[in-house]
Predict the structure.
Amino acid sequence: MGLIKNWKPIVKRFEEKLTSWKARTLSFGGRLTLIEAVLVVAPKNKGGLGVGSLAASNKALMIKWLVRFKNEPASLWARSITAIHGDSRCHSYIPLKSSIGGVWKSIVNLGRKSQIQSINAGNSTLREMFPDLYELESDKRCFVSDRYIMNHESIDWFWGSGNPLSNANNIEEWAACLSILQNVVINRDSDVWLWKSSEKVADFAVSAVRNELDYIDTIKETKVLCWLHWIPKKVNCFLWRVVLDRIATREALMIRRFHLPSNQCILCNNTLESADHLLVSCETAKQVWLIIFQWMKLPIPSYMISVVQVLEIINSYKSQKNTKRAIYAVVAATCWNLWKMRNEIIFKQKAFSVAKLIGDIKAISFTWIKNRADLGELNWEKWRSFKI
C-alpha cells in the first residue's frame, strides 16, 4: 500500500464526490460527513471521531492474505509463493526468503508482529509443550494426517519421525503427548485458520480485525464524550477537540509559533488563555457555569478546572435518560457559546455580557433538543424551568 497507484481508487472517489470549490467551503462537520460517506466508519465509544483508521484497514487486509495462504494452499498464487519462498530448510508456517523484498515480505513481517501462531493444545502449542520432541522431529513441516491412522472409529497416533525416540526422557515426553492427543477429535474437513480475539474464535473477517486494531491506543480523556445526536455534529466535534486541547486558543497558537499581541485570556485578561481556562476555570466562565448549574437544579461543584472534569461530573449524576442527555446538551451549548463569544470579542469587537450569554445558551440548547430529540411535549415555558 506504499505505492501511489494503490491510493488512486480512493482519490478518485473523493474527486467524484467533491469539486475544488466545495472543498474550501466545507465546515469541520461537513468534512467528517464526507469522510464517513467515502471511507469506512468505526464506533465512536473509544475516543475517536467515528472514522476508521486507514492504517488499521490496511493491516487487516494484509493479514487476510496470510489467512488465505493457509486456507487456500492449492490456489495458483499460493503455490507460486511456496515455489519462490519455500525450501527444505524453511520450517515456518508462512514461507519467506528474507533476501527477496516486496509486498509478500511486508505481509509476512506484519503477520509475525500480529503473533500468528501454530495449532494450539490448550493455551500452548505442542511445540512449546514438548520442545525436545520438536527438536528430534526430522520433518517439522509434516501434516497432522501423517502421524495417525484410523482404526475403525478410533485414532492410533504414532511417532513417524526418521529419528527414533532414543532415550527415556523422549519416551516419557511422547507418552505425555499421546495422553493429550487421545482427547483430540479429528474432523475430516479441510483445515482452516481461524481468528482468535480474547476468548472468541471465529472465521477470519477483515472488519473484525480492523475494529480490534482501532481499539488500540485509545485516548482516555475522550471516554467522557457521549456523541449525542441531539447536538449538531460540528458541536460534538468541537467538544472532542476541546477535550484533546486542539482548539485555536492563544496558548495553542503560541505553541505553533504564531506572533500574538497578547497571550492573556480575553475574558479576564489575567491568565494564559488555554482551552480549560477559557471554558471552565476563568472567573467569568465560573460565573456562567454557576448560573447554568443553578438553572439545571444541579449541585454546584466545589471546584472545576477542566472540561473533562465537568463532563465527568455530569456523567456521574443519577437521573432519567432524557434528563441526562439534556444536561449534556446544555454543557455542550455552554462550551460552544463561550467559544463563540470569545471569537466575537476578538474579531468583531463586541462587548461581553453574561446575561446575553446565558440567554443564548438556553435558547440554542432548546432549539437543538426541540428539533433533534423526540420530546413532543417540550415547550419554552418548561425549558425555562428546566422541566424535561
The chain has three domains: 4-113, 120-193, 220-384.
